[in-house]
What we know:
With 337 residues, this protein is of the alpha/beta class. The protein is built from ten helices and twelve strands. The strands form two sheets. The protein has a six-stranded mixed β-sheet, sandwiched between helices. Strands 9-8-7-6-10-11 form a six-stranded mixed β-sheet, with helices on both faces. The protein binds 5'-O-[(R)-(carboxyoxy)(hydroxy)phosphoryl]adenosine (KG4) and zinc ion.
Amino acid sequence: xxxxxxxxxxxxxxxxxxxxxxxxxxxxxxxxxxxxxxxxxxxxxxxxxxxxxxxxxxxxxxxxxxxxxxxxxxxxxxxxxxxxxxxxxxxxxxxxxxxxxxxxxxxxxxxxxxxxxxxxxxxxxxxxxxxxxxxxxxxxxxxxxxxxxxxxxxxxxxxxxxxxxxxxxxxxxxxxxxxxxxxxxxxxxxxxxxxxxxxxxxxxxxxxxxxxxxxxxxxxxxxxxxxxxxxxxxxxxxxxxxxxxxxxxxxxxxxxxxxxxxxxxxxxxxxxxxxxxxxxxxxxxxxxxxxxxxxxxxxxxxxxxxxxxxxxxxxxxxxxxxxxxxxxxxxxxxxxx
Length: 337
Ligand code: KG4
Ligand code: ZN
């Protein structure tokens, strides 16, 4: 059994996980978020997030251990996400994990947060199956948008991604100019679902027809900002229609580029991962296209899409990259591969 800790952004998570038939079973998964505090600033304020995490980390770990019904003797290792993320937040998770590993005399497993998002697809749920390799992974979060090729559990290759903004960042920034709260993704989704009218024009789908796996979302964001500033006052139906078109444009680019990768690499499965993987529209569109292409699509359950410690545990079980506990340091700019 592994105790996993996640504190890369505004969430503080702890989970107890165990290996199970090629995948991972979750015994507990606790999360405390400071998102509500950030609503009034329209985004995460790093210092505020870190101060909250200092307060919540120990209670969250304790809660995860109690819910799983395990004692520290039964824990075989401590896992922690050491990057990418906010330095203050990372320090709290990493130093807490180091302290526990030393006090309890357990090995420490340092986990890449983005790789953990991908490994959420190995969490055992209703579908008692794990992804076959090679696999193409679309990793979409607030800070990253990458397409990767998983040749095996260990061998990953970066094959494409965004040149500028991440997809989640685009949604969060657009939400802000649209007067919607943080985090923007779920708010834009909600507004889009309520849309009845049509804008009468289309937003750009940057680089969609280019025959490569490059993406760009800053132009799409700028187009939304331009619309909003030109209009001055947006009516409700206009805001909803704009949200729908934005989500549509972003989804089309993500799906098109993933399918290009599928065409090129002929994988046995496709993996969706990261906070934006919680988007119903993206899940639906990618689901349709993968079915047409005859390739298995894996998507984590909603609760394992946005930041959580269960996925950190999953990565620790399946890709245990051992490090000397005292030498683990936060790496704010770590890449997925
Ligand atoms: O992975 P994550 O929780 O944190 C990072 O590692 O960045 O991803 C957060 C991102 C945010 O940009 C948020 O707006 C987006 O995921 N997100 C969504 C949805 N839920 C969260 N985007 C679209 N639809 C959602 N339902
Ligand atoms: Zn994340």
